[in-house]
What does this fold into?
Amino acid sequence: MPGSELYDIVVIGSGPGGYHSAIRAAQFGAKVALIEKNKLGGTCLNLGCIPAKALCASAEFIQKLKENGEDHGILGDFKLDFSKAVVRKNKVVKELTDGIATLESLWKNDVYIGHGKILNGNANNGFEISIEGNDNKKIKAKRVIIATGSTPVLIPAFNIDHDRILTTDDVLHPNFKTLPKKLLIIGAGVAGVEFANIFASFGSKVTMLEYLPSPIATEEPMVVKEIQKKFTNLGIEILVSQNVLSIVNTGSGVKATTISADVPKEQIEKAEKFYVEADYCLVTIGRAKESRNLGLEDLKIEAPRGAIQVDSKSLETSVKGIFAIGDVTGGLMLAHVARHEGDVAVANALASLDEFQVKEKVTNYRIIPATIFTSPNIGSVGLRRKNAKNSGYDLLMGRFPYESLGKAKCMGEEDGFILIIADKKTNKILGASCIGAEAPELISEISLAMQHGLTVHDVATTIHSHPTISEMVLEGMEDVYGMAIHKKGRPIRLKD
It folds into this structure.
C-alpha cells in the first residue's frame, strides 16, 4: 500500500520511459510514486510494440514453416489459428506487465492507478498532484516527470468506429481475435508494414494505401525494394501516392474512396475517384501526443498540438522542477529514446535536490537505431546514402548478402543484405541498413561502434565468432574497402 504522500519524484505515465524513470530514480535512493491511468507498461507494453512483436514472431514462424519446412524435414500441411496466436500474445504481455509491477514493488515505489494531474506548486515548495480514478487522492512531489505517451491519430474523415474501421489499439486489444479475409491498411509506414506482414502470414488478403510515393520512405531504396519483393510473394498489394478521402463502414465491410496524391486540392472534387473494399480497415497514419488534462494550461507550460515543450538538453519544461519525456514531447516516438530521456530527466531532477549527489545529464540523440519487424526484419542507424551525399560526404559503401554467409544458409535465412556507408576521408561509419535475419541485433553492434567513433577498420579487425549471423557485420565492413572474403570485390586502400 502507498505510504507517505510526499515524494522526491512523481512519474505520470508508466510506459517504457515512465516505469524506467521510476526504477532509475529509486536506484539513486529517491522516494518515488508512479501514476498510471490504465495498465502498467503503458501503450508500448499493452497495445503497442510488445504485443505487435509477439504477433510478428508468430508470423515469422509461419513463414519459415511455409518456405523451408520441408527442407528441414517437416512434412505435411498445418493449420493456422490466429486466435491461438492472440492467446500467446496476451500471455507475453501479462508476464511482462506482472514483471514491471514486481520490479516497482522491489524498489519500494508506490504505484497509483488513475489519471494524474498537476494542480499547483513550484520547485521550492513542491507540486500537488491529484489522482482521479481507482486511487482517488492527492499527493505531493518535489519533482515531476511527465511520460504520458501517445495514442493513435483519429481522422474524422476516416470514421474510425472501432468496429470495422480500426486503430492499432483495436487490433492489439486482448479480445481482438478476428482474422479478416480482406484487410485494408491505410498507411505503409513502420506500423502499417508490420501489421500487413502479420495478417498476410495468417492468410488475410492485404491491400495498403500510402500517401507517399514509397512505403517505409525513410529507409534505403534497396531495402524498400527487397521488402516489396517479399510482400508481393505474400500477396500484399501496396498502392502508393494515394490520397484517401474517406472510409465508410458498409455494415458488412468497409469502403475507401481515394484519388491520386498528385491531384491539387482545388481539383479534388472533379478528380477521378477509386474505391477499395475490404472486410476491415486498419488505420496506421501516426500518433497524437497525450497531454490532455494534465494541468499544463494553469501552469503555463506550452504544448502546441499536444507536444509538451522542453529544453532539448535537460528535458525540463518552462516550469522549473517539471520534466517531460517520450512521445508526449513530440520527438522521436521510439521506446528506446524514451528510456534514454528518462535517464536524463531523472538525473537532472535529482541533481536539483540537495540531498542527492547526482550529476546532471544532457540528451544525446546522435546515434539512434531503428527497427521494423517484418519478415525479414529491417534495421538501420545513422545516415542513408542520399542524406550522406547531400551532406557533402565522399562515400564508400559495403554491401554483403545473407546468401553468402554460412550461418544464414544453415538457418535457411538467405534473403536480404547488410549495407554500410563510410566517410572516405576518415574511415568513420556514417550509417548502416540491414534487411534479413536478426537485422536489429546486427544494427545494435554498428550503433555501438558509431557511438564511440570507431572506424570501418576497427570493426573489421575485431574477431567475430564463427559461424554466426554477426559475421554479416564483419563481411559488410570488409566490403567497404573491397576485402570481404566471401564476396569478390575491388580492393580499396583506406587510410590507417
